UniProtKB/TrEMBL annotation:
Pathway: Metabolic intermediate biosynthesis; chorismate biosynthesis; chorismate from D-erythrose 4-phosphate and phosphoenolpyruvate: step 6/7. Its EC number is 2.5.1.19. This is 3-phosphoshikimate 1-carboxyvinyltransferase. 3-phosphoshikimate binds at K29, S30, R34, S169, S170, Q171, S198, E313, H340. HAMAP family: EPSP_synth. It comes from Rhodococcus chondri. The gene is aroA. NCBIfam families: aroA. Monomer.
Length: 428
């Protein structure tokens, strides 16, 4: 925001030559926020190393501190020491963070006292009703169906079995599972509806619960059963955020350059790992070594026909690459993106269209045709991944200006300087 109250424009740097850089990314938002919830409910103190510090993770730290956990930091903030405490009345600011608004209410239901939730104006339209109705069915008392709402915590929650339609967000399932072991009877979640999106994120939840000694039964399809019992305190090291790596790897793809990301895990539940195969299918050469992932962009980038249902978080990056590809792309299976930070399908169609692109919003995705793009203002809609999508296009299109580049602080503070360093070939 400028001094006059208007959102300032960031001139997206144009790549004057193919990029050639190594970019080290901070920790994963999704892993950090899960680790924080589990540590706050654990049976002793834990340490989280390599944590992401960003708006979304700071909101999670603030929420859990307010509820009673003691959280201190070291090493510039990226090592977090978490000591659980009795959970009590509080007020939670969710900002625009899906992980805070969906993961913290079950923790609040365990508190002794009222916990009021609110967030950004834009967060008030993000879907919440499914999680709150499920919590009520499990014995919690809640007033409201979307932000703002109040959880009347009574110190314990009965738990049991609940059937929900999680086709709107995997976070509905993850949120219930993360606290479930602390409910008297544990929780069994059945999903009934169209396919659940972002399944790798539910796998991440299950894997992290099991890592903390919680018994989770996933033997029946669309059913997750968490047994009641202690959540073991443990020290966790957070992987780099692979979704946040995708704009940098896309930079190699669109400029015909080369970008390496150190510490890319060989086995991971992060959705961002899918970028390897996506960029390969679009013509890039992708190599995963013991030390890093390296993407070399092709001479001619081709479009892609792909179902992104499992990895919807990558859509803004993939759409930006597709917008400058030589052949059409069809991105499918992502109707649920209409409930993300903003309606991402409408936002991408509008903004690529504004720069001269040909994009059609379909029932469950986007169809993007090759077209010569020109400069203009790219609107971010307070969405970090919209802002980085504008930056990708701006590498190869003159005079693209991104409004509110600062919104990238939701998950990647300092994005602009990391982007500049990539362009100047600094190896971070
Ligand atoms: O659990 C998580 O950490 C996330 C789950 C996904 O949400 P949806 O299932 O709503 O897409 C993903 O898009 C989001 O960025 C993070
Ligand atoms: C959908 C996203 O975030 P949130 O955790 O707020 O849902 C995202 O980061 O792409």
């Amino acid at each position: 925001m400028g001094e006059d109250g208007r959102v300032s424009l960031w001139r997206a740097p144009r790549a004057v030559s193919p990029v050639d850089a190594s970019v080290t990314l901070p920790g994963s938002k999704s892993i950090t926020n899960r680790a924080l919830i589990l540590a706050a409910l654990a049976d002793g103190p834990s340490t989280i190393t390599g944590a992401l510090r960003s708006r979304d993770t700071d909101l999670m730290v603030g929420a859990l501190r307010g509820l009673g956990a003691t959280i201190t930091d070291r090493h510039g903030g990226t090592t977090l020491d978490v000591t659980p405490g009795p959970l009590h009345a509080s007020a939670v600011d969710c900002g625009l963070a899906g992980t805070v608004m969906r993961f913290v209410p079950p923790v609040a239901a365990l508190a002794d006292g009222d916990v009021r939730f609110d967030g950004d104006e834009q967060a008030r339209s993000r879907p919440m009703g499914t999680v709150l109705a499920a919590l009520r069915a499990l014995g919690a008392e809640i007033v409201g169906d979307r932000l703002p709402f109040t959880v009347h915590g009574r110190g314990s929650v009965r738990g049991g079995t609940v059937t929900i339609d999680a086709s709107g967000s995997s976070q509905f399932v993850s949120g219930l599972l993360l606290s479930a072991a602390a409910f008297d009877e544990g929780v069994t979640v059945h999903h009934d509806g169209k396919a659940v999106p972002s399944m790798p994120h539910i796998d991440m939840t299950v894997e992290m619960l099991r890592g903390a000694g919680v018994t989770v039964d996933t033997s029946e399809p669309n059913t997750w059963r968490v047994h009641p019992g202690p959540i073991r305190a443990r020290n966790v090291t957070v992987e780099p955020d692979l979704s946040n790596a995708t704009p940098f790897l896309a930079a190699a793809a669109v400029t015909g350059g080369i970008v390496s990301v150190p510490l890319w895990p060989h086995a991971t539940t992060q959705a961002g790992d899918a970028i390897r195969h996506i960029l390969e299918r679009m013509g890039a050469d992708v190599q995963l070594s013991d030390v890093c992932l390296t993407v070399r962009g092709p001479e001619t980038l081709v479009g892609i026909d792909i179902d992104l249902h499992d990895v919807g978080e990558l859509t803004p990056t993939v759409a930006a690459v597709a917008a400058v590809a030589s052949t059409p792309s069809e991105l499918r299976g992502i109707a649920h993106l209409r409930g993300h930070e903003t309606d991402r399908l409408a936002a991408l169609a509008t903004e690529i269209g504004r720069l001269g692109g040909t994009v059609r919003e379909t029932e469950d995705g986007l169809r993007i045709e090759p077209a010569p793009l020109h400069g203009g203002v790219w609107h971010s809609y307070a969405d970090h991944r919209m802002a980085t999508a504008g930056a990708i296009i701006g590498l190869v299109v003159d005079d693209v200006e991104v409004d509110d580049i600062g919104t990238t602080a939701k998950t990647l503070p300092g994005f602009e300087s990391l982007w500049d360093s990539m362009l100047t070939g600094v190896r971070s």
